[in-house]
């Protein structure tokens, strides 16, 4: 398929809206999506903390996209969404989006880590939104590794719950923070804290899920990165 890949500032408002309406809403349940207005404001906003790479077909129609959130304080970039329009999945569009965005965002932000979220295929079955096994195999082929922590997606809005049983992946790591198959704990913890604050507005020290997360992270100064294959068996 002949596609062009463009950054968020290289597409127009209608194409950004189409990314949300025609791709993201068909690829993620409501609990995993930010509000439409919030998404469009963030991507078009002047601070540049929300970035996107959009895939367009020969006619200029949006066929996929990848969205990232830059956490400047801890210098970590979170890949929030990777999605391809239904009917076009498995054709290489997602692979192209991830590969191109890692290069572009690595140059643009110089992050210590680029991380992402994926459903644990041992818990989540295939649904109308996609197949967790296929997703994880794609990320494995692109070199992603898994951080063994009890990760969950914080609640994205007031009427949403946390999304549990997710895997936290490392797509890329700065050489200074990727030593002998491990990453620096302080960077990971900084991201987890900033992500919780950005989504939920506070961190409750008595929250059992947060306490379990800190217990897993704080037990060592370096967190191993594991091959995705162990989560596929």
Features:
Aminopeptidase, seven-stranded mixed β-sheet, three-stranded antiparallel β-sheet, 29% strand
Write the layout of secondary structure elements.
Layout: E1 3-7, H1 13-24, H2 36-44, E2 50-57, E3 62-71, E4 76-84, H3 93-109, E5 113-119, H4 132-141, E6 145-153, E7 163-173, E8 178-179, E9 182-184, H5 185-200, H6 208-218, E10 222-224
Parallel strand pairs: 4-5
Antiparallel strand pairs: 1-2, 2-3, 3-4, 5-7, 6-7, 8-9, 9-10
How far is the first residue's CA from the last residue's CA? Answer: 32 Å
Q: Describe the biggest sheet?
A: 7 strands, mixed
Percent helix: 25-40%
Count the DSSP helices.
6
Query: CATH first level: which class?
Result: Alpha Beta
Please give the number of β-strands.
Answer: 10
| Shape designation | globular
Note the run of SSEs as H and E. EHHEEEHEHEEEEHHE
Strand order of the largest sheet: 1-2-3-4-5-7-6
CATH level-3 fold name: Aminopeptidase
Structural domain tally: 1
Rg (C-alpha, Å): 17 Å
Low-confidence stretches: none
Percent of residues in beta strands?
A: 25-35%
Summed up, what is this model?
The protein is α+β, with helices and mostly antiparallel strands. It has a single domain, classed as Aminopeptidase (3-Layer(aba) Sandwich), CATH 3.40.630. The chain has six helices and ten strands, in the order βααβββαβαββββααβ.
3D architecture notes:
This protein is α+β, with helices and mostly antiparallel strands and 233 residues long. It has one domain (68-231): Aminopeptidase. Helix content is 32%, strand content 29%. It contains six helices and ten strands; from the N terminus they run βααβββαβαββββααβ. The protein has helices at residues 13-24, 36-44, 93-109, 132-141, 185-200, 208-218, and strands at residues 3-7, 50-57, 62-71, 76-84, 113-119, 145-153, 163-173, 178-179, 182-184, 222-224. The protein has a seven-stranded mixed β-sheet, with helices on both faces. Strands 8-9-10 form a three-stranded antiparallel β-sheet. A hairpin with a 2-residue loop joins strand 8 (178-179) and strand 9 (182-184). Helix 1 (13-24) crosses helix 2. The longest helix has 17 residues, at 93-109. The two termini are 32 Å apart. 34% of the residues are buried.
